[in-house]
Structures are given as structure tokens and as C-alpha cells.
Amino acid sequence: MSKTSDHPAPVRRLDYRPPAYLVESVDLTFELDPARTRVTARTVLLPQRTDGEAEPLRLDGRDLALESVRLNGRELGPGDYTLGADALVLPPQAGRTVLDVVTVVEPKANTALTGLYASGGTLLTQCEPEGFRRITYYPDRPDVLAVYTCRLVADEEEFPVLLSNGDRRDSGRLPDGRHWVTWADPHPKPSYLFALVAGRLGHIEDSYRTRSGRDVQVRVYAREGALPRCAHALGAAKRAMAWDEERFGLEYDLDTYTLVGVDDFNMGAMENKGLNIFNSLYLEADPETATDDDFAAVDTVVAHEYFHNWTGNRVTCRDMFQLSLKEGLAVYRDERFSGDLRGPGVQRVRDVRALRERQFAEDAGPQAHPVRPDEYQEISNFYTWTVYKKGSEVIRMLHTLFGEEGFRRGLRLYVSRHDGQAATCDQFVAAMAEANGADLTQFMRWYGQAGTPVLDVEPVYDAAARTYTLVVRQSCPPTPKQPAKEPLHVPLAVALLDPDGRRVPLRLTHEDAPSGTERVLELRQPVTTFTFADVPARPVPSLLRGFSAPVRMRMPLTSEERILLAAHDDDPFVRWESLHGYLTELLLGRYRAGDAEPAPLPPALTDALARLLRPEEPEPALAALMLELPGFDTLFGALDEVDPVRLAEVLRATREELARTLYEPLLECHRRLDDGRPYVFDAERSGRRALKNGCLSYLAELDTPEVAALLHRQYERADNMTDRLAALTALADRGDGDGVLEEFGRRWREHPLVLDKWFTVHARSRRPDALARVRRLMDHPVFSETNPNRVGALIIAFCFENPLRFHAADGSGYAFAAEQILRLDAVNPAVAARLAGCFNSWPSLDPSRRETVLRTLQVIEGSEGLSPETSEIVGNASV
Ligand code: 0A1
Ligand code: ZN
Questions:
Q1: pLDDT band at residue 7, thresholds of 50, 70 and 90?
Q2: Start and end of every Peptidase M1 alanyl aminopeptidase C-terminal domain (predicted)?
Q3: Are 658 and 601 in contact (CB under 8 A)?
Q4: Could you tell which of 135, 270, 382 is best to mutate to test the pocket of ligand 1, judged by most ligand atoms within 8 Å of the CB?
Q5: Phi and psi for 57 in degrees, rounded to 5?
Q6: With DSSP H G I counted as helix, E B as strand and the rest as coil, what are the percentages for the chain, rounded to 5?
């Protein structure tokens, strides 16, 4: 079968052409009705060609019923325009053009959740990336910026709350009993930032006084029943507003800032101007129903959307290839914000861990693409780990190169220079370079080259000359369509530790005097050599501090050196990485050894782990991270021809062995941290809970009466979801866990977000009947194939997070995934395409599984009517 013949031609970055028409203003009227909503759009357009050769006026539109078109007041007939499947095309217009278009859409029937759709009784829009064209005919591209007004008309009983972008202007009642509200957004914006929400919603509010003394009303809207859980999000919004003023001098620019939570949403949230819409998972949090991680995620996501107000909305993207311009930057900013809340070291380790587990895998697989992609079939497939998280790492490297002040200068220049514009990644980097007098030409390659670069470091100590040399070689593996790579500009943060773990003053041989004990070395060549002078004894290198670049680093370190770094380095990332690297090697060794009886765990390692459990350990949150074994995906990524079932078993067996070896210290640490204090969400307490529950999770591998009692006691007595879910998860795979699982399901059956946690516990279960139970739960009254959170918690969780059962040798996991991809594709292509990513790892599987996956991919690809979203993912995977 030809892989590409039935795909539409890809959109290419280099084909960019400025818009032929700009839009001066858009006035929208929505007559809202879940079954049939009428949209009247008045768009004022201005042709852009100066050479007199006007182009046809092409307006994007998908799945719209066109009721009427008027051009400069004249009603057009079908002979006056061309109506295609994805556009309405009018003859070239020479001057200012007023277009009135009336379309009808069916929100209730829209299960793709893009455009105008219904979630419960609420109507709302999702326009990024290309949803606006599912509402009306319009030049739906981010470089067309316009001023919008929006009039919403609806039944007052059903839709008492009517919201849109900007500030509320006017309202009234029609003779037929419907009410209306008008909103006006004074800031020009692209169509992807348009939004409306209509429904029976309650709200909580607070006000925020900006640095310049303006009062902003901050409101969170949600279903009435959810409002008591929205206080944390409201606080997060105010914290983010203050943070952006303090760090970057960026103030909010409207009189109201509105956040809305909805239950059916394809992603985490959306930064529509002045009207951020959230998946309720990222807006609701209280101690009883949300874990510490949920609270932290609310902080991060609320801040992320808020930060877009400047980096994304005031300065937007010229085209969708520049997505990372706003997304990488917003992630970088939310990571920094979260670091300030929970401790920068712990936050950094968590972010790096996520990047390495997910983005590195993406970069090594069939969907690998640069931070700024060169082409796409479906832009909705490019909201990826690479664009978001690697994009953030690229921004972070600029911070590492220029320091806090230099970075701030660059960001200020970028924002002031491009305010009100649609910019490019080049322009962002140019502002950074200019503000710092730097040349970032080579640095730009980070935006264009896919793949995870590798640094091979060779250290040489010369005792006679008292020099220490680091030879650093950089390389980058080939990725689809990029066989050869150019060297990158890489910041490498280093320190050298003496045998007692103290930092050595650093002087490179060509320098006169040492400067500091921590340096950022810059790599630009394929091979770079750095020689440090006056090094009295062989040091222990502390490299890539803070994970200063998104690379894989390979360096020969002895076990003793790793243990020293884990115990004494003052860089939290290096501490974590040293132990993580050690454990990774150990687990890979055990996997490679096959059936041979594994060598016992080295006492130096178990001692290092035991030290993390002691009261002297200064940061329990970091200790909790260091205690965790490397994840399945990390190990998988380091191997070829993997038997995933055996790999999962190596992980399980090693956990059990560690639990046995550290039994007393684990019990003791759990006892000490289980202090009975009432639940408060803050960095200190959540860190203690993380370590306590890390201990619990190891202990659950053992079948002692003491452990059983401990698990049940914690489940029953918990006054918060963090502890309760930790106990439930630990019990789920045990013979004595069934009662508790049932109790949890009963207790939370009215609360879908909590029940999602329960679905996921089942989906991840090691039990042999895990898949059968997942299938059964798909009939649960709360499960719904139209809700992305439910599908994510059960089906996607099984396929991505249960390697043991997903990769079952009989192929049942793969068959299940295929069946669900095809079923969901007809409901919601974005969700189906996400699920289809579960096959991306096939090239690293053993030959027999590889063959099964390839056959499965072919079946999916050959299915009638597959969406372009899913077909792009499956097509790339099966090449
Ligand atoms: N810009 C949003 C992400 C987002 C993208 C596409 C969506 O449509 C389904 C929704 C949200 C963000 O970064 O938060
Ligand atoms: Zn974003």
C-alpha cells in the first residue's frame, strides 16, 4: 500500500506567504441553541497587495451550513462565489470590503470538541488551532489580527451566563424572552484566541490590583457544585499575575480576567484572550478530591494560560510552525513559576524526568520533529512534547547563557518590539541576541534540528601537571527526513568536586585567575576540549548541572563517584541524576543478563538509598524523587529488541528486593512522616507526603502482616486524597486490595474526576486480567467515550502506562488499542490520534512484537474514512 498517496499534500513552513487580506474588525452575533446555532459575522477586510493585482478572497470554513453572504451590502447568489469543502472563495476585491456571512452550526452533534460544542449543558468554543473555521467563514490564520465584538443571544433559563473575550459592554432582553450580552475586546487578536462560553454556571471572584494601580476582577466560573473546589485556582491566578509583574514587569491589560472550567475538553486548557477555558481537571482542587500533584498541576496550568496573555496573545505567532514561540516560552515561564512555589530543585528534577521519559522518546521515534517543524499534515498533531517541553528547554538555555538579567532584558525587548504583532522564533531569538550583544546564529539550529543530541565526555586527570581535561564530543542521531546534523551551540554547566564533595575553584589554562566554582562552558564544535589548571587531586565532575541542555550525556563515572555526587553535590539535578544513572545501569544490566540469577544489590547503593530515608535528609521532596526507580520508558529507550514484559518484571523484582533490603528504614521513615497533622497543601508538607508515600509504595511489594495493616490503616484514616490514593494504588495489585478498590469506586461514583483516578489504577494494574477489567469498566455508568478525560484515564492509561499487559505476548493489548483507535476516531479524531501514539515505540520491540504492531498499523491505516489526524500519526509510524 502506498503510504502517502491518499494523504493531502503537507503544509510547509517555507511556503509561508503574508495574507492577501487583513481584517480590520469582526462583529459576531451568536443565536445560541445546542441543536442549531446561527452565527452572523460581519468582517471588514482590507486587501494587502500593493501592485494592484488583487487576489481572490479566500475564507476558510469547515462543516458549515451557509445561510447567506452579503458583500458590501449586496446579497450574493451561489454564482457569485465558489463553495468548497474547506473554503468560500469570492472574486478579488480592490478596496475595503464589508462581508456579512450567516452560518449555522450544530454544537450538540460536535463530538470532536473543536469549534462550537456542548459540554453538559454548557456551550463553548475551542478555536486553536483551526476551530474558528468551524464557526464562520474567515481567514483563519494567526497572522490576521482583528478587533472583535461579540453579541451572545440565548434563552435566559438555560444560559444565564454569557461570556466572551475582553470586557462586558452591554446587555438586555429581547421581546421573545431571550437575553443578550455584548463583549468587546480592544486588543487585536487572531481567530484562534476567540472564545465564548454560555451556560448555567456559578462563579467565585476576587480582585487584583496591578502594579500600576488598576483593579482587575478575577473570576472563576464552573458548575455550581464545583465552585467550592475552585478557590485554589483563583489564588493561582492572582499568584501568576503578581509573578509576571515581579519577574518581567508584565501587567494584565483588561478589567476582567475570567477562568472557566468545563468537563469536556481535548487538552489541559486554552488561553483565549481574557477568557481562559480549563479542563476541569486543572481548575478544581480540594484536599478531599485532589492529590498534591493535582494541586500543583492547577498552579502550573493556570499560570501557563495566564502567561500566554503576553507571550502568545499580545505577541502571537505568525504561522502555526512558530507554535513553540508561544508554547515553549509559556512552559518555560510556568516551570519557573512552579519552581518558585515548590522549590526550584525539585521542580527541575520533575520537569527533566518528564522531558526525558516523553520528549526523548518522541525524538527517537517515528514522529520526531524539530521544535519548529518544517511541515505537517494536521497541525493539531503538533501540540507535542517537543514543541512544548523541548521548546522550553531551548528558552532555558538562553537563560543559562545570559543569566537572569540578560534574559529579562531580552524578553522585555521582544515583547515591546512585537507587541500587537504575529512574530517568529527568529524574531524572538534576534531580540535575545540583540539585548545581550550575542551571536545566536548557531543557536537557531536548536529550532530546526530534531533528535536528542549526545554528549560524550572523556575526562583526563594529569596528576603531574595538576590539570583536569574534559574532552566533549557532540553528535546527534539521524531522524526522519534529517539524516545528517550540524553541531549545536550547547551550554554545559560544570563544577568539580574534591573527594570530600567540596567545589574546586575553576581556572581554565588560558585564564589568569580562577573565577568561581561553577561555570557555563559553551560547546560549538563537534569536539571541544577544556583544561582546568591547579586541580590538586582527581576531582569528581559535576556536569550538565541543572540539566543545562536537553541532551543525553555519557560519561564514565565510577559507582563511588556517583554515590558521592548523590550525597554531596549541591545541584539537585546532579544529585538525582547520579543515583538515577546508577540505578538505570543496574536495571539494564539485570535485563541484559536474562534469566541468570541477578547479583545482589551493592551495599553502597542500598546505603545511599537508606540515607535518603533519614531525618537529616534536608529535602524530603527531592529524596522521594531520588528513591524512585527509573521508569519503564527510560529503560526501554536505552535498549533494542526489547521484550517489554521481561523488562517490566525486572523492574518489579528489583523493587521487591529493595523493599526487602530496606524494610526497616522504609517502615521507620513512613512512621516518622505519618505525623497526623491535618492536610495543608504547601511545598514542605507535600514533600513529606511524597517521601512517606514513596516508602509505602515500596513496602506494598511485601506480604507481611505489618505492611497489610499499614496500607489499610492509611487508606481508612486518610483525611486527604494524596494519602488515600497512595494507599489505594499500593493495594491495587495485592490480594487484599479488592475490598478497598470496591469501596473507593462506590464512594466516588458521583465524582467523575476522582473516578478517573480509580479507572487509572485499574488500567495500570499488573493483574493478569487487567485488560478484561478495563473492558468491563468501559460499561461503567460514569465512563463515556465522548469525554477525553475518561478515555485518557482508562483506555489511554492502559495503552501507555501498563507495559506489562499492553505488550502481552498474545497481541491482545495491541488488538484492543487498534479497536479503540478506530472507534474513537469517529467520535473525536484528536483523542484517537493521541491514542495511536501508543505504537510509536515499535522499532525498539523484539521482532515478533514488531511484526504484530506493523500488521496492526496496516489494518488501521487501511480503514475506510480514517481522520487526517489519526492517519498522519499511523502513517508516520508505519513508514
Ligand atoms: N494553547 C493551549 C493548548 C491547546 C491547544 C489546542 C487545543 O485544542 C484542542 C486546546 C488547547 C495551551 O497551551 O494551553
Ligand atoms: Zn500554552
A1: low
A2: 560-876
A3: yes
A4: 270
A5: -90, 105
A6: 45, 20, 35
